[in-house]
């Protein structure tokens, strides 16, 4: 049963990554779930519990997609990019730094998906308008989306898998992740400026800059987004489900959009990736099948064995780099689910060994900066740019990722390890 479950899981993930007809992401996952159900790897009695366990993540995703849609509709991302353009004062170096800053802020409060998928086309349009070389700026959007995605629990939906499973508080989370995130971002920015230094020599004129007109609709949306940022922080601090502020803000934004007669339900239906919801839920069912086959408990016992030999740093490296490598092979969503399930089998994981959970989060968030298939947002980022005429070869992304990711991951892993020792 163990090898059967693993074979179905790997085959399903390959179908998700390569999408042969007639499969899409959701269809491939549903096919894998169906096979596991038929073969008895997923008992029917566990369906209700799995669904209930993942409701927070499903509603978080739904709220996030709706909030991102209304923010884009209001011109929020255009306004933010236009502000960065004005502050750059014609300097390519300064503009890249402002793109990084903008990406960090949007990722912190609206998730890595918003940065990779909604900020990227706006930045690409701007650099094209001014004749700048686009690669430093569009790569910055993709890489900072992952590097900044573990600052807050809500900065990446993947984080919620661990937050919900182990009941992580905001104060504890920040205590472990803020410093490593700042270190990873700093290393990434320094390497970016060194690699792209020749592409950033040319300046540009702001004579043709187009101002983004603000109106009552856009101002109301921005006020709601401020409410969302505060709500996410308070909710994390109180330990409440993060879906609450996302869904509440989504309903507020829908009301604002209806009030100003900007609502187009047909456009909303086409613009939101609804298939993400069955995809995420299907992954949860498949990981349940792996648990029932004993795969995740075996991984957890192996990690417990490495700690028993007093090799805590080695265990931390295995957890972070293992999750990172696995994320690039099978995507960070299924890999994070497997990591969380495996870590839950370790004795005292919520006590003295809690720092290992943060190593897994680090690997799942930062790891996708290595290969395009590491995260769905990065794969969609690539396709989005291709539709706009910019062809980026996956190998070019990997070359840059191989330079940036290993040192960032190593330094951040060591930082979490030291913070874990101090907390004990």
TrEMBL record:
The keyword Transmembrane applies. GO terms for cellular component: plasma membrane. The chain crosses the membrane at residues 25-45, 57-77, 97-127, 134-154, 174-196, 217-236, 242-260, 272-290, 366-385, 397-419. It is found in: Cell membrane. Belongs to the ArsB family. Coiled coil: none annotated. Its main location: membrane. One of its GO terms (biological process) is response to arsenic-containing substance. This is Arsenical pump membrane protein, putative. The keyword Metal-binding does not apply.
């Amino acid at each position: 049963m163990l090898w059967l479950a693993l074979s179905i899981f790997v085959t399903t993930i390959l179908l998700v990554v390569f999408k042969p007809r007639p499969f899409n992401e959701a269809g491939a996952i549903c096919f894998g779930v169906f096979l596991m159900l038929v073969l008895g790897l997923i008992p029917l009695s566990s369906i209700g519990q799995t669904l209930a366990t993942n409701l927070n993540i499903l509603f978080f995703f739904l709220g996030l997609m709706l909030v991102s849609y209304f923010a884009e509709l209001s011109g929020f991302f255009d306004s933010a990019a236009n502000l960065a353009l004005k502050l750059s004062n014609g300097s390519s170096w300064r503009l890249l730094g402002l793109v990084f800053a903008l990406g960090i802020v949007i990722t912190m409060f609206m998730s890595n998906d918003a940065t990779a998928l909604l900020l990227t086309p706006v930045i690409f349009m701007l650099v094209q308008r001014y004749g700048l070389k686009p690669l430093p700026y569009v790569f910055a959007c993709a890489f900072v989306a992952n590097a900044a995605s573990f600052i807050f629990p809500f900065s990446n939906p993947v984080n919620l898998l661990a937050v919900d499973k182990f009941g992580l508080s905001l104060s504890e989370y920040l205590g472990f992740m803020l410093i490593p995130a700042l270190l990873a971002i700093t290393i990434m920015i320094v390497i970016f400026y060194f690699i792209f230094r020749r592409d950033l020599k040319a300046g540009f004129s702001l004579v043709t800059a187009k101002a983004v007109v603000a109106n009552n609709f856009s101002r109301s949306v921005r006020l709601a987004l401020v409410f969302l940022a505060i709500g996410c922080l308070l909710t994390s601090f109180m330990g409440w489900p993060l879906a609450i502020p996302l869904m509440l803000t989504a309903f507020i934004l829908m009301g604002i959009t209806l009030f100003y007669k900007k609502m187009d339900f047909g456009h909303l239906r086409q613009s939101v990736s609804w298939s993400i919801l069955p995809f995420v839920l299907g992954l949860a069912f498949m990981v349940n099948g792996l648990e029932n086959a004993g795969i995740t408990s075996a991984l957890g016992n192996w990690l417990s064995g490495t700690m028993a030999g007093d090799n805590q740093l080695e265990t931390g490296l295995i957890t972070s780099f293992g999750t990172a490598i696995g994320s690039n092979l099978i995507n960070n969503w299924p890999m994070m689910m497997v990591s969380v399930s495996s870590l839950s089998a370790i004795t005292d994981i919520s006590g003295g060994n809690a720092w290992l959970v943060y190593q897994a989060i680090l690997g799942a968030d930062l790891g996708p900066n290595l290969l395009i298939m590491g995260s769905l947002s990065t794969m969609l980022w690539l396709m989005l740019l291709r539709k706009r005429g910019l062809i980026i070869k996956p190998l070019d992304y990997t070359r840059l990722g191989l330079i940036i990711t290993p040192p960032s991951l190593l330094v951040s892993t060591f930082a979490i390890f030291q913070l874990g020792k101090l907390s004990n």
